[in-house]
Design goal:
The chain has helices at 2-25, 41-60, 104-107, 248-261, 279-284, 303-307, 326-335, 362-369, and strands at residues 64-71, 81-91, 98-103, 115-118, 124-126, 129-133, 138-143, 164-169, 177-188, 202-205, 217-219, 225-232, 243-247, 267-268, 271-273, 293-298, 314-318, 321-322, 341-348, 351-358, 360-361. By secondary structure, it is an alpha+beta fold. The chain has a 7-stranded antiparallel sheet with strand order 5-4-1-2-3-7-6.
Length: 376
């Protein structure tokens, strides 16, 4: 780029010198003024991108809120806990009610009257009702105000690695902060986020996200919400360029079920799966790829036990879908209707076997199994 600029400057100088010689040596005439050359395409592209960022900020920021939640004291403590986060206002499917989407960990344990929502124009109000799903870390707050700006939901299924994104939130209490980056990866699930979060299928971004940003929107360049910012990977609790957002398709599905039924129904098989299935593990078992979900425990009296699954089996395929890792299997089984019969391709004893299982009801089984381990 510097060479190109140097060449442009040099050519400009040469043209000016030639023009001066003509004036001095030739017949007297009025100098010709040439029109200024248009800026290089790269500058036009950057200017256009900057304008898109400005448009998104102006359009969506009014619908992004700061949230303060007062929670019960931690175990062994007497002082209430204060939690800060972000959220985004949306309108319900019928267009009547207005809701705030955020993370469960922002408001968990707080009553509606203990949750304060602050708008960009400094209006403040309390949540009227709260629905939460700890397993996906999604929460929905109803607000009894109809005159609020709202954001439009996009589709996370259309998100591409490398595309530009914008994040808006309240990092460190600095409300209406706007940052940008790209989508670094999709379908990230093998990350540790605490004991209650079981459904993990994140968009990864390098857009700067910090404490207080949780619950804020991740946006595409059309200003549509494609994710809810949730977590960061960091050694010092601040941005390190690795952040995670719940895909908006999953958020919308969970929110819809919460509003319709009050809770999310999920399927399960009754397995404890290895969190890591590495290449060396696959080779030791005679596999030539590290795809699959390795079974560590099969719980008695569960659909998995009835299906004949055993410790040490590697589930390679669910119906017609190849299983990449344990998190994909967890998400797929969890999303299936109760009673669905599934076909499992299993690696056992250096060969593939086919087994059939019926998806059970996780809500009915979790009280019995959760105290033992995390079953799937």
């Amino acid at each position: 780029m510097l060479k190109r600029f140097g060449m442009l400057a040099l050519l400009g100088t040469c043209a000016f010198a030639g023009g001066s010689a003509a004036v001095l040596l030739g017949p007297r005439s009025t100098p010709t003024v040439n029109a200024q050359s248009p800026p290089p395409p790269i500058f036009q592209a950057l200017t256009h991108l900057s304008e898109r960022f400005e448009t998104i900020a102006a359009k969506v920021s009014p619908a992004v809120v700061s949230i303060e939640a007062t929670k019960p004291p931690a175990a062994g403590k007497t002082r209430a806990q204060e939690e800060s986060g972000s959220g985004v206002i949306i309108r319900g499917e019928e267009g009547k009610n207005v809701y705030v989407l955020t993370n469960n960990h922002v408001i968990a344990g707080a009553k509606p009257e203990q949750i304060t929502i602050s708008l960009a124009d400094n209006r403040v109000f309390k949540a009227a009702q709260v629905w939460a799903d700890p397993e996906s870390d999604v929460a929905v707050l109803r607000v009894d105000r109809g005159d609020l700006p709202t954001a439009k939901l996009g589709s996370s299924s259309k998100v591409r690695v490398g595309q530009w994104v914008v994040a808006i939130g309240s990092p460190f209490g600095l409300s209406q902060s706007v940052t940008h980056g790209i989508i670094s990866a999709r379908e990230r699930g093998q990350i540790s986020l605490g004991g209650t979060i079981r459904i993990k299928d994140f968009l990864q971004t390098d857009a700067p996200i910090n404490p207080g940003s949780s619950g804020g929107p991740l946006l595409n360049l059309d200003g549509e919400v494609i994710g809810i910012n949730t977590a960061i990977a960091s050694n010092n609790n601040s941005n390190s360029g690795v952040s995670f957002a719940i895909p908006i398709d999953l958020v919308a599905k969970v929110a819809t079920e919460l509003l319709e039924k009050g809770a999310v129904t999920r399927g399960y098989l009754g397995l404890h799966l290895a969190q890591n299935f590495e290449a060396n593990d696959a080779l030791k078992l005679g596999l030539d790829t590290a795809n699959g979900a390795l079974i560590e425990t099969v719980y008695a009296g569960t659909p998995a036990a009835s299906a004949g699954l055993k410790q040490g089996d590697v589930i390679l395929q669910l119906d017609n879908t190849t299983i990449r890792n344990e998190n994909q299997l967890i998400n797929m089984i969890s999303a299936m209707p109760i009673g669905t019969k599934v076909r499992l391709q299993v690696w056992r004893g250096q060969q593939v076997q086919t087994l059939y299982a019926t998806v059970g009801n996780w809500q009915e089984a979790q009280s019995k199994l959760r105290t033992v381990a995390k079953p799937q």
